[in-house]
Structures are given as C-alpha cells and as structure tokens.
C-alpha cells in the first residue's frame, strides 16, 4: 500500500528504502512538502482561555448552616448575607475581609431578632448602613457625565423624533403642572369618600343635636355590664380598674403584637401571627407590664368640626396628608404626635403632644415616640385642634391611611377625605384593609416602616400623598 509505505517527517512525505541509506525524497514529495510548509504548522498544545486569578474567585462565599426550627428561614438569611457581601466587597480591601464583615453583620441582625419580620427590618437597616459606607467613585461620575444623553423618542423614532411631537407624546400623559395646586385638587375629587363610605368605615360624624360630640354609625363593640371592667385590646383579658382608671390588680399582659395572616400550605390555608409565626391560640410572644384598652370610640365628647371658609382667589382650599401617633393612657389611646405635609411633600406642621392623662405604655414599637420625647412638651390636644382648624377648611382634602383612626385621635370631624385604604381595597373587602407598607412595596417598590425603633409619622404621611399621585398618573393612562 502506497499510504502505508510513507512516513511523515516534519510535514514532508518520504518513502523508506530497503537498505540502511537515508531516505530519499521524490519530486512529488518535495513539492507537497513545500506547499505544506507554507500552509500548515507543527502541532501545538490546545489553547486554554485565560482565567483571571482574582482572590474573590478562589474564595468560596460563606453559607448559612441549616438549623431545624430556626426562627428565621435559612434561605432568607442567606439572601441577605449575599447582599451584605456584595456591599462589603465595594469598600473592603480584600474578599476575606468583606466575608468576615458581612458574616458579623448578619450574625448581629439574627441575634437581635426574635422573629422573621423583625429580622427583615433589622437586615434592611443593616443593608442601608453598608451602602452608605461605599465611597463614591469620581471616575465613574465623570464617565457618566461625558456620555451623550439620548431621549426615549430618539431611540424609538430616530433623530427626527427628538424634534417632533407625535404619538409618543400621548395626550393622556400628565404634565408636572397637572399634579400641583388647584389642578391636583380637581383630580383628587374623584377619589373623595362619600358620606355613606364615611359612615361604613367608622369615621366620626357630627352629632345632630349635641355640638362637640361625635356619633358612630358602625356596629358598636359589646360593652361590659360593669363600668369598672375593661377588656384588654391586646390580649383580650378582662381586667378591673378603679374610678380613676388605674388597674386594681397588677397583672402582666402576654400578647402577640403582630396581626393574624393567612398563609397557603399544602392542602389549604393556615393562619399565623406575623410577629412570631405562632398559630391561633398560641401563647403570646410579648410581655407588657399591664393591660390596656383603646377607649377612643367610647369617649365621643370634645370633638371639633372643620368649618366653611371664604374661597381663596385661586379657588384652592388646600391638600394635606396627615398621620398621628398614639400611646396608651389610663383612659385609652391618646395623641402623642401629629404630622401634616402639603402636596409638595413638605412638612407644614409636626409636633409632639402631651396626653391628658397618665401614660401607662408609650407604644414605642409602633409610634416611635419615647418617654424622653414627651418630657419637655407642653402642647395639648386643644392646641393642636386650634392649629388644624386654622389650617384646614371644610373643603380641604385630607389624605391618610385608615384616616378615621387619626381623626379619632385628633377628635376632629372632617368629611372631605381621601383614604388610601379605600382607594386601594383589600381583595376580600371590608373589614380587611391592606397595610400602608404593603401598598408602598407593591406599587411604588419602596420599603417604609422598616425602622425597628417604630414608625415615623412624616414618612407615613408622605407615603399616602405619593400613593395618590401615582394613582392619578396610572388612571390617566387608562383613560387616554
């Protein structure tokens, strides 16, 4: 066979002879060898892509160990640990240092938490803190500023679109001036609650015969026969009080501070408390010094009502969002702080308020108000009412979330109301209402009320105003 009798030597084909002489090259072989030398090369090792030897690539990210019956699911802890690592890598000198710091921060967050929800709050605050430690890079800022800005119209329609107004600028889109002042007032009137809605949702209404007294049209809670017997609004226990409102017997209040929430499980639904994931009927996860009660709907005297005022030159009665914080006193829930913001999201009134009776629980977990906050304040409920009556008229639009609760705390009767709990209803209808925190997360993709020290009334008031501006914009898109 001719092929088997040839040997390749350095890319050239030669034919061995029978004797011991060196092999001779044929003319054809020489020609082929010359051609091959110009088009082929010797065999080289297979090329391997270069892999950068980064220190972070050689180190494995730490993993949270799985614990049986842990108070916080492992996957949630791991997710936040990874987020902590991502932020720490931006300012730590080495990957190992970033891993160690992230592990330390996650461990602190876990140890401070007694439940999943508390852990989420602490973890979010920790993430914000780590992000604030990341230094701003001037080079990246300069690089961004040098880039040419291209409009959305230019991308879709070419250069001519940037100079031409056509269907991209739809007539249904709102301009900035359409969401300020009198223009915003006119649009918000579509969302005002009717008188029937005010009654149905338990808003205080003026008493037809007794000035200064409010009346409720919702079904009243069952009252105890003995006036000295009260029902704790946290744990449901009956307890006795003296004529001055003090508890006759010292007794701790063991309760769940979270709400009951339904959760889908294989085969149906289960109801758990949001604070500790405890089942219905499980022992409380929080211990307070004594029992407390609401009492706001039992004390219907001392109310004031906004009144008609002469219209202003621009015909704009004003738009405000408000939120109140309360504490538990011997007589029930009383006002401790009120915040009012205008349509520009600027705070126009914010003050701590001294309760009329002795405080038994400052309710700091929810209100954010502490004993120190109220030590030096001399503002009373009557002072607040005087300021608000001067600021508002009967036609002023007030925005809030479950605003009836705030109006009861203020002892204020007002009928021109936009309630975000009604504008964004719960899918199951009343009496269920969606939390303000949930609405902000679902629609504006923002987290509020994430401070473990309690709510901030200015933050909640701004959230209500921003939700309604967003709602107006979205509804305008549908109508165009």
Automatic annotation (TrEMBL):
Pfam family, one: RNase_T
SMART domains linked to this entry: EXOIII
Keywords: Exonuclease, Hydrolase, Nuclease, Nucleus
Main location: nucleus
UniProt GO molecular function: exonuclease activity; nucleic acid binding
Positions of region (Disordered): 1-22
Assigned GO CC terms: nucleus
Compartment(s) of residence: Nucleus
InterPro entries per the UniProt record, alphabetical: REX1-like_exo, REXO1-like_dom, REXO1/3/4-like, Ribonucl_H, RNaseH-like_sf, RNaseH_sf
Exonuclease domain location: 318-477
Protein family (similarity comment): Belongs to the REXO1/REXO3 family.
Protein name: RNA exonuclease 1 homolog
Native source species: Strix occidentalis caurina (northern spotted owl)
């Amino acid at each position: 066979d001719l092929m088997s009798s040839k040997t390749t030597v350095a890319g050239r084909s030669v034919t061995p002879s029978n004797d011991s002489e060196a092999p001779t090259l044929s003319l054809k072989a020489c020609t082929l060898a010359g051609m091959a030398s110009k088009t082929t090369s010797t065999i080289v090792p297979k090329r391997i892509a270069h892999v950068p030897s980064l220190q972070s690539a050689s180190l494995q990210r730490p993993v949270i160990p799985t614990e049986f019956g842990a108070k916080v699911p492992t996957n949630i802890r791991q997710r936040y640990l990874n987020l902590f690592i991502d932020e720490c890598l931006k300012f730590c000198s080495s990957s190992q240092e970033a891993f160690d710091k992230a592990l330390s921060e996650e461990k602190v967050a876990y140890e401070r938490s007694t439940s999943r929800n508390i852990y989420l709050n602490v973890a979010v605050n920790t993430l914000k803190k780590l992000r604030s430690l990341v230094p701003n890079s001037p080079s990246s800022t300069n690089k961004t500023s040098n880039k040419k800005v291209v409009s959305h119209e230019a991308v879709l329609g070419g250069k001519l679109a940037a100079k031409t107004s056509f269907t991209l600028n739809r007539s249904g889109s709102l301009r900035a001036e359409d969401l300020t002042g009198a223009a915003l007032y006119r649009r918000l009137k579509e969302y005002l609650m009717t008188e029937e809605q005010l009654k149905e949702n338990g808003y205080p209404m003026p008493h037809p015969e007794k000035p200064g007294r409010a009346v409720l049209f919702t079904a009243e809670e069952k009252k105890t026969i003995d006036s000295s017997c009260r029902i704790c609004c946290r744990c449901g226990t009956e307890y006795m009080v003296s004529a001055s409102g003090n508890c006759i017997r010292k007794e701790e209040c063991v309760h769940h501070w979270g709400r009951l929430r339904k959760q889908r499980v294989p085969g149906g639904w289960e109801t758990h408390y949001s604070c500790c994931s405890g089942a219905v009927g499980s022992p409380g996860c929080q211990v307070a010094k004594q029992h407390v009660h609401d009492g706001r709907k039992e004390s219907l005297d001392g109310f004031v009502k906004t009144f008609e005022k002469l219209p202003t030159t621009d015909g704009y009665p004003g738009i405000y969002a408000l939120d109140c914080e309360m504490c538990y006193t011997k007589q029930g829930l009383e006002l401790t702080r009120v915040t009012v913001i205008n349509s520009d999201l600027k705070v126009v009134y914010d003050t701590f308020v001294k309760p009329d009776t002795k405080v038994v629980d400052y309710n700091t977990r929810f209100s954010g108000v502490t004993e120190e906050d109220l030590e030096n304040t001399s503002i009373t409920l009557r002072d607040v009412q005087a300021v608000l009556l001067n600021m508002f008229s009967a036609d002023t639009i007030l925005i809030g979330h479950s605003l009836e609760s705030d109006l009861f705390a203020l002892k204020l009767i007002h009928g021109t109301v936009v309630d975000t709990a009604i504008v964004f209803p719960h899918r199951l209808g009343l009496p269920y209402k969606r939390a303000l925190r949930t609405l902000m997360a679902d629609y504006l993709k923002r987290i509020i009320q994430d401070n473990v020290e309690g709510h901030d009334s200015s933050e909640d008031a701004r959230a209500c105003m921003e939700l309604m501006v967003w709602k107006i914009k979205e509804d305008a898109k549908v109508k165009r």
